[in-house]
């Protein structure tokens, strides 16, 4: 990057909001952090509830240092959902069942529904238990305050299981910031190197592969089953804390609804069970009485007021993830309609909007970068989605005699799919079509990336970014927030060395679009001065030629100090 920035470090924030995930071992709390784009001197981009209640995934075994207690309340406005507060009893918004639309021109992942009957008393001898493996992951997180270096590595353990074709499934948070992943089969003393093929942060699923033929000798992949019913028996298998051998816990299905996925801050279909899920269970399978896998264990709900609340990612969400990967040769994510909605339960509100029937949800806000921005306006009322009627409380029919959140229908789609919306605008009914794509937040709040909010949570920048993550929307594609994390002291930037964690808005009067745009503006500048404008009208002026001359010296001193 050009001269002036050689004396500073700019970071592009691409994620925010902390949640608690747990990876197995001595450390029970581990917050996943999503990648940010950072630049130092030469525009090199390094990609990298309330108190007492929270959701957890796998546990981390991190060394050295004490783990931070990282927590954050859940967002009070659901993505593509209905605004409303979440209390202790309803901390998870209703959840999606993501089966996705079928496409004939591409290979689809299908479930083999062949039953495998077995006696409950012989569970310990069931062959399908051998398909469950232990995951050993070495992680190296980036240092967001010093983006040219990384933090010390640490290790964790979790669970995974075989699904055939040389592949395994586990949780995305089990392999976040991975530098090496190994797996070990039940009853084996050999660890095998695994490759991470795809990570779905929003659905907390990761796809692994193992090339060793020895690993797959005698292996029988698991078969997937249907979405269970309430009170169906469920068995969770994995490698949690408390021992080195496989662990089996039993319970029943307590609830099936759209659930908050703590790792990705998304809302998808989830299965609530009362079987124990402990640190290290994450990524392990849950079985029904026929020995079929009905989902992936991934998080628990911790509170002083409740106990034995665990969550399983259903096979419908797993199917969506795998189909997405097969279609695109990569994971693209669950799509979004790109709107914020409000319930229409109040009769006066419906009458004011000229909605005659007891149905529909109000469009409060449309994201400028979404395709829906072409066809929807604030004040429209969505009454149907692909000819499925939407109730005034924001729900749609589900199975035989249930209702589920409207977001469930959106989650069945794939990125690039078209949805037909029935809307009422100023009393007139019409139908419009919109292309669905994954939502892009101005400050994404995937747990897999909580740069400055986490590290600077007590400072003003953390609070500002938290506010932007909740309420700000990108005005155009590619928009990023660029943060000056610190100034690398030198004579050329005398008087600015105490600056840190400030958002840069303009360079020489030009609005900054993203980190690449800033680098281009600096490199192409021919003016005598580089004039940086920050929030609150704070001004920084550097002499361009002087900054250029000292750039290499600052870089050399920086790398020598690492």
Automatic annotation (TrEMBL):
Gene3D superfamilies: 2.30.42.10, 3.20.190.20, Trypsin-like serine proteases (2.40.10.10). Residues 50-59, 66-75 have a biased composition (Basic and acidic residues). Residues 48-104 are annotated as: Disordered. One of its GO terms (biological process) is proteolysis. Residues 452-557 form the Protease Do-like PDZ domain. Keywords: Hydrolase, Protease, Serine protease. It comes from the Eukaryota. GO terms for molecular function: serine-type endopeptidase activity. The keyword Hydrolase applies. InterPro entries: DEGP_PDZ, DEGP_PDZ_sf, PDZ_sf, Peptidase_S1_PA, Peptidase_S1_PA_chymotrypsin, Peptidase_S1C. Belongs to the peptidase S1C family. This is Protease Do-like PDZ domain-containing protein. It comes from Salix koriyanagi.
